[in-house]
Design a protein that fits this description.
Layout: H1 15-19, E1 22-26, E2 32-36, H2 39-47, E3 52-54, H3 56-66, H4 75-85, H5 91-117, E4 139-143, H6 144-161, H7 174-188, H8 190-198, H9 208-236, H10 250-258, H11 269-300, H12 302-313, H13 321-325, H14 328-340, E5 346-351, E6 355-358, E7 363-364, E8 370-371, E9 374-377, E10 382-386, H15 387-391, H16 394-397, H17 439-456, E11 457-460, E12 468-472, E13 476-480, E14 489-494
Helix pairs in contact: 3-8, 5-6, 5-17, 6-11, 7-9, 9-11, 10-11, 11-14, 11-17
């Protein structure tokens, strides 16, 4: 089978669907891997974190970027970290963040408007000049990935840390620059990066990718240290907050845990910095990619974009958290985007002991016999859980499973199987002890940004119809065939008042 290093699109290997729900394939450098998109198998593996750990190569990569935070912690350390940070991602906490998210989304709309109105402004214009056919009066080619990456960093800063990271400001921002440079080198050097993550000896080679990771982590730790110092000084020099209803933000909770007396409730300085780095990196890159995918789907389906804008314009300019979540087409559009293009198209686990994987769909063994209920798996096996294959399977989503159709959710029987996940019958945020802790924040942010931008702008496919595809590595991101670097070029025009 094709090598798994070829992450050309979101589905990765569409022929998996034709070959069955579970099978074996050769990973990069000959490593044998079991792959599955059987929802029962996936759910069992994700729930059994004591048996199924994140693959060593993935953990090694994430640790280089974010340190010893929630993405890499295991066992008791992971449970302790989650318990401390969980309150910052509760529904109550997210509701308190809504005004800050709207403020940043509106600033983003203002900056985008300036870019559309003035051709001399290059802040968010695509670094590739528009082709002659893409020069359209009243509109402009804009790289929405560049804009959304800066926006989501600022949202994390404002909503999570009550500070302005200033990523949206026109001047170069060291944090954004280091993250984007690291992502570009990782994606450009995919094979080298994968080899270094798989084999510890190769990991010692100081490649361009490794240097970029070190630079990025150093910058994230610098920002984290500044946030910690400023907040600690503010708390030390102020009286106790009289507002008992104030919801503590992420930084409050982390600093409180940093000074806790009980060891099982305490986070070390390194762990606090790692948590902040994790939120800065994972909380911005994944959400930015999803917003870009959503805007592109709307650009390709102007009828749905028009209907969604009509729904938005019939609502107050800054709706409440409850009103925002009650908008049916907005909810369905976000859900359909996450179904087709999840931030992580797959996740790989390895088992710490001999075990069995329960199956809902029988699989044929190597000797030709059918394995009906459970697949025996030896210790140390690698299992790839293909989220995208499950979320594009016609047996689950209908015959138009490959198409963008938010109206599919009007059918209460969709999805036709129980999917292991946190929201919307989707596996996009996975499930189990290691599910995405920020899923509520991500949903609120995606909805608020979409709501705000569609009130002011129309998004269209460029007349030159660039071949945009999704590439998967440390995260998924859009690229254009024949051009280097991540980007989401769209034609943007103002909506007439």
């Amino acid at each position: 089978m094709a090598d798994l290093a070829e992450y050309r699109d979101t589905v990765m290997h569409p022929d998996w669907v034709a070959m069955g729900w579970t099978g074996r394939c050769q990973h990069i450098m000959g490593q044998e891997t079991i792959w599955t998109y059987d929802p029962v198998a996936m759910g069992s593996i994700l729930q059994s974190a004591d048996v199924w750990e994140r693959a060593k190569n993935t953990e090694r990569l994430l640790r280089r970027i974010t340190g010893s935070g929630m993405l890499t912690a295991k066992g008791a350390a992971h449970r302790r970290q989650r318990r401390i940070v969980n309150p910052a991602f509760s529904t109550t906490a997210i509701k308190a963040m809504v005004p800050a998210m709207f403020e940043k989304a509106e600033l983003c709309a203002t900056l985008l408007g300036r870019c559309v109105d003035d051709d001399s402004l290059e802040s968010f214009a695509s670094r590739y000049p528009p082709k002659p056919e893409d020069r359209v009066p009243g509109a402009r080619k804009v790289d929405m990935l560049a804009l959304c990456s800066k926006l989501t960093q600022d949202v994390i800063g404002a909503a999570g840390f009550n500070t302005d990271l200033e990523s949206l400001r026109p001047a170069d921002n060291p944090l954004d620059n280091s993250i984007q440079y690291m992502l570009n080198t990782i994606f450009d050097d995919t094979i080298i990066s994968m080899g270094q993550n798989l084999y510890w000896l190769l990991d010692k080679i100081p490649t361009r990718t490794r240097r970029a990771m070190k630079t990025c982590r150093t910058e994230m730790e610098r920002v984290s240290e500044r946030l910690m110092t400023e907040r600690a000084a503010k708390q030390e020099g102020s009286v106790v907050d009289a507002d008992e209803d104030k919801v503590p933000d992420m930084l409050d909770l982390l600093l409180k845990a940093n000074s806790a007396e009980r060891e099982d409730q305490r986070l070390s300085d390194e762990e606090v910095r790692s948590q902040l780095s994790t939120l800065l990196f994972a909380g911005s890159t994944t959400t930015a990619g999803t917003i870009c995918s959503l805007l592109r789907f709307l650009a390709l389906h102007p009828d749905i974009q028009a209907r969604l804008r009509e729904e938005i314009e019939a609502t107050e300019e800054r709706p409440s958290f409850e009103t925002l979540n009650a908008l049916p087409l907005l909810d369905a559009t976000v859900r359909e985007t996450l179904r087709l293009e999840p931030a992580a198209t797959c996740t790989v686990r390895t088992n710490t002991k001999d075990t069995v994987i329960p199956l809902s769909v029988p699989v044929r063994g190597r000797d030709g016999t059918m394995i009906e209920k459970a697949l025996p798996v030896a210790k140390g096996s690698y299992v790839l859980l293909s989220i995208s294959s499950l979320q594009r399977h016609p047996d689950v989503w209908g015959p138009d499973a490959e198409e963008f159709n938010p109206d599919r959710y009007k059918d209460p029987s969709i999805p036709k199987m129980n999917i292991p996940g946190m929201w919307g019958g989707l596996a996009s945020f996975i499930s189990g002890p290691h599910h995405c802790i920020g899923w509520r924040l991500a949903l609120a942010e995606i909805k608020i940004v979409t709501f705000t931008l569609l009130r002011h702008f129309a998004f269209e496919e460029l007349p030159s119809k660039p071949d945009i595809f999704i590439v998967m590595n440390v995260a998924s991101r859009p690229e254009v065939k024949g051009e280097s670097g991540g980007q989401m070029p769209l034609l943007v025009r103002r909506i007439e008042a």
